[in-house]
Amino acid sequence: MDSIPKLLIGGGVILIVAGLLWGVGGKYLQLGKLPGDIVIQKENVRFYFPVVTCIVISVVLSLGMYVIRWFTK
């Protein structure tokens, strides 16, 4: 039963950090418009694939899961 409070605390910390990054970091780090994201524009078609944005989000989520796993030990 000790792991549930640790899990809730870890999840809360992750949500707080994500909220701060979203609010403050959104001005400086514009996800979706990073160098390396693929944008192809033709006459009526626009193809957009955020490769680097997906990598950044994956790294952040992986670190978050690591923190949650650390709190549940």
TrEMBL record:
Ranges annotated as spanning the membrane: 7-25, 45-68
Keyword Thylakoid: no
UniProt keywords, alphabetically: Membrane, Transmembrane, Transmembrane helix
Organism, as annotated: Paenibacillus solanacearum
Membrane as UniProt keyword: yes
UniProt-recorded name of the protein: DUF2905 domain-containing protein
